[in-house]
Amino acid sequence: MSSLFSSLKMMTKGAMRCVLITNHLKFFETIGNFQLLQVTVRDALNQAMDEELERDERVFLLGEEVAQYDGAYKVSRGLWKKYGDKRIIDTPISEMGFAGIAVGAAMAGLRPICEFMTFNFSMQAIDQVINSAAKTCYMSAGLQAVPIVFRGPNGASAGVAAQHSQCFAAWYGHCPGLKVVSPWNSEDARGLLKSAIRDDNPVVVLENELMYGVAFEVSEQGLSKDFTIPIGKAKVERPGNHVTLVSHSRMVGHCLDAAAVLAKEGIECEVINLRTIRPLDVETIEASVVKTNHLITVEGGWPQFGVGAEICARIMEGPAFNYLDAPVIRVTGVDIPMPYAKILEDNSTPQIKDIIFSVKKTLNM
Amino acid sequence: VLKVLLSLSNTARNIDFINGISLCIYGGARLVGSTRSFADFSPQASFDIKKCELHRLDQGPPTQALLTREQGLKYYRTMQTMRRMELKADQLYKQKIIRGFCHLYDGQEACAVGIEAGINPSDHLITAYRAHGYTYTRGVSVKEILAELTGRRGGVAKGKGGSMHMYAKHFYGGNGIVGAQVPLGAGLALACQYKGNNEVCVTLYGDGAANQGQIFESFNMAALWKLPCIFICENNKYGMGTSVERASASTDYFKRGDFIPGLKVDGMDVLTVREATKFAADYCRSGKGPILMELETYRYHGHSMSDPGVSYRTREEIQEVRSKSDPISMLKDRMISNNMASLEEIKEIDVEIRKEIEEAAQFATSDPEPPLEELCNHIFYNEPPMEVRGTNPWSKLKSIS
């Protein structure tokens, strides 16, 4: 009997130990999940829209293929099934028409998300974005608000050639009355899109097609339904002392990769992710320049009248100018329409080696 | 009263006799200085109105309109106020107190007043740049309109917008880019449908804008989604200096919605416009989708104050419309000949309006310009204060919303 008991005891103890061990494993797993939750940029945008659609019934999405096709790039996957025809609207191929319709709906108090399949097609509708949306609050002396979001992929993709590869950061960033954001990673995508939807003003969200499938770790805080990133604040992604690299969207990743290579040679780059193009967070850049004395801007768009050009001008006009040990350098896309052949395309936008080369040049190495 | 009684008994000679007597009595009354009482006027009358040409519709608006004395006086007052306001703007522009663009609406009053009479204040309306009339019918005072034209702080947009950018509740301007207001209007209609509030949106454009591609994009989406949008083409025969024949392969603007039903309406008669608008609004509210109205109308002024308006049309043509089809005269004649108002009463209204316009012009010329501190305000809505770069790097301006 006692042996039965002791074996039972052993079994239960063992069972308990098993349970404890399993619980422990679960605990570690949770910790693991906590740290390693990977979300692609696509899913981050999808979740952001889903949460905002649920939170506010005035929010709706319209654009080409956003509903039944689940989105040309699958960013709106599942939303039509969940919310139906009223809130997820497939439009005909009529950018000027549907962008204007979206702006009119916003004027009447709804909160539309107007998707451009790519921002290249927004040129067809740019009058509605600028003249009907951006300028109206000012022209009406505050009587008429336009709470609208224009979003879609911007900039170079892969092999889509000249008419489908233009970066519009400088074009939209030029205009008062607009806010322009350019997320890089998944946390950016979630936080900035949610802020844009909650903003009572026209916001242009410049996504990047090549980033849609890239997964990033997102913190638990970043996954909360009320997680927003303030529009107009840049983020220091990597601290450093020797040179400041300022970038937006996909190029932020290139800067971090370049920084990793340069670190092996003892050069510590501070990488700033602009997150917002307009209003530009020049204070964060200035604080960094005061520390590093060297500044390089990196963008995918063309050099003339671009984001980097604006940063140069602002730095020159501000207190950080006196802290520069060298002129600001711009690393940009090549000043040509985007070619098709892979070797040509690869050499049309900044590569990591271009950033490394520029860093060494500015540091006189 | 005698006249009415005798006319009932149908004796023509007696009517003449009674007419003569009434003239004496009234003449006497005038000498004594008393005016006719309300009981002397007909409270209402029914008028035959022009039939509308139809496109894809089996039935059109009624061919008879009932006008009450009260309505008639209101329409008269509104149209005359608009007329005088536009003429005052003309004067102020020539004195260089109004600058930039100024597109005047005189001649087209029946359109704005008739439309407003056919919809509710809770409905929505958007138009292009010839917008002063609609700004008034949608509720903004003459004072605020003129002060906006003269760019003063008392203007409806605080002097920030000018002639083409005036807004009010359920009135979305005033839009400067030809045709851009049409997709906006379709969007306003989408919002009505989305909210399920039984409201409609009146979306106006001109014969010149009618050839804009975005209008056809709007027609397509409005019809596809059955948006409660009343598209209205104000055809005043000229898009700036280009006549309709020189601009459009088809000048049947009411048919250009193709799959959208349309009606062609006499835009110089406020009653025809009202009945057509009511018809159109009922159509939209019943969920049948959009409808298109072409209003045949005419502008006395040129395209804008920079256009004398006689290089592409003759003075005779303008004079002919003025004498034969003026909307205000037509209403006045109708009311007087149907005993719904007296000439004195109309004259009194005119005097009141003249006074109102004078006072408004006085305000518009004496009110100060907006303060420089307001230069950068209202860039955004509901936003914390921010800094705006001025003309040079040291100029840091403040913007509040």
From TrEMBL, chain A:
<keyword id="KW-0560">Oxidoreductase</keyword>
<dbReference type="GO" id="GO:0004739">
    <property type="term" value="F:pyruvate dehydrogenase (acetyl-transferring) activity"/>
</dbReference>
<protein>
    <recommendedName>
        <fullName>Pyruvate dehydrogenase E1 component subunit beta</fullName>
        <ecNumber>1.2.4.1</ecNumber>
    </recommendedName>
</protein>
<keyword id="KW-0670">Pyruvate</keyword>
<keyword id="KW-0630">Potassium</keyword>
<keyword id="KW-0809">Transit peptide</keyword>
<dbReference type="InterPro" id="IPR029061">
    <property type="entry name" value="THDP-binding"/>
</dbReference>
<dbReference type="GO" id="GO:0045254">
    <property type="term" value="C:pyruvate dehydrogenase complex"/>
</dbReference>
<feature type="domain" description="Transketolase-like pyrimidine-binding">
    <location>
        <begin position="39"/>
        <end position="214"/>
    </location>
</feature>
<keyword id="KW-0496">Mitochondrion</keyword>
<dbReference type="InterPro" id="IPR009014">
    <property type="entry name" value="Transketo_C/PFOR_II"/>
</dbReference>
<dbReference type="GO" id="GO:0005739">
    <property type="term" value="C:mitochondrion"/>
</dbReference>
<dbReference type="Pfam" id="PF02779">
    <property type="entry name" value="Transket_pyr"/>
</dbReference>
<dbReference type="InterPro" id="IPR005475">
    <property type="entry name" value="Transketolase-like_Pyr-bd"/>
</dbReference>
<dbReference type="GO" id="GO:0046872">
    <property type="term" value="F:metal ion binding"/>
</dbReference>
<keyword id="KW-0786">Thiamine pyrophosphate</keyword>
<dbReference type="InterPro" id="IPR033248">
    <property type="entry name" value="Transketolase_C"/>
</dbReference>
<comment type="subunit">
    <text>Heterotetramer of two PDHA1 and two PDHB subunits. The heterotetramer interacts with DLAT, and is part of the multimeric pyruvate dehydrogenase complex that contains multiple copies of pyruvate dehydrogenase (E1), dihydrolipoamide acetyltransferase (DLAT, E2) and lipoamide dehydrogenase (DLD, E3). These subunits are bound to an inner core composed of about 48 DLAT and 12 PDHX molecules. Interacts with DLAT.</text>
</comment>
<keyword id="KW-0479">Metal-binding</keyword>
<dbReference type="Pfam" id="PF02780">
    <property type="entry name" value="Transketolase_C"/>
</dbReference>
<keyword id="KW-0313">Glucose metabolism</keyword>
<dbReference type="GO" id="GO:0006086">
    <property type="term" value="P:pyruvate decarboxylation to acetyl-CoA"/>
</dbReference>
TrEMBL record, chain B:
<keyword id="KW-0496">Mitochondrion</keyword>
<dbReference type="Pfam" id="PF00676">
    <property type="entry name" value="E1_dh"/>
</dbReference>
<keyword id="KW-0313">Glucose metabolism</keyword>
<dbReference type="InterPro" id="IPR050642">
    <property type="entry name" value="PDH_E1_Alpha_Subunit"/>
</dbReference>
<keyword id="KW-0786">Thiamine pyrophosphate</keyword>
<keyword id="KW-0670">Pyruvate</keyword>
<dbReference type="GO" id="GO:0004739">
    <property type="term" value="F:pyruvate dehydrogenase (acetyl-transferring) activity"/>
</dbReference>
<comment type="function">
    <text>The pyruvate dehydrogenase complex catalyzes the overall conversion of pyruvate to acetyl-CoA and CO(2), and thereby links the glycolytic pathway to the tricarboxylic cycle.</text>
</comment>
<dbReference type="InterPro" id="IPR017597">
    <property type="entry name" value="Pyrv_DH_E1_asu_subgrp-y"/>
</dbReference>
<keyword id="KW-0479">Metal-binding</keyword>
<dbReference type="InterPro" id="IPR001017">
    <property type="entry name" value="DH_E1"/>
</dbReference>
<dbReference type="GO" id="GO:0006006">
    <property type="term" value="P:glucose metabolic process"/>
</dbReference>
<feature type="domain" description="Dehydrogenase E1 component">
    <location>
        <begin position="77"/>
        <end position="372"/>
    </location>
</feature>
<dbReference type="GO" id="GO:0005759">
    <property type="term" value="C:mitochondrial matrix"/>
</dbReference>
<dbReference type="GO" id="GO:0046872">
    <property type="term" value="F:metal ion binding"/>
</dbReference>
<keyword id="KW-0809">Transit peptide</keyword>
<keyword id="KW-0597">Phosphoprotein</keyword>
<keyword id="KW-0460">Magnesium</keyword>
<keyword id="KW-0119">Carbohydrate metabolism</keyword>
<protein>
    <recommendedName>
        <fullName>Pyruvate dehydrogenase E1 component subunit alpha</fullName>
        <ecNumber>1.2.4.1</ecNumber>
    </recommendedName>
</protein>
<dbReference type="InterPro" id="IPR029061">
    <property type="entry name" value="THDP-binding"/>
</dbReference>
<keyword id="KW-0560">Oxidoreductase</keyword>
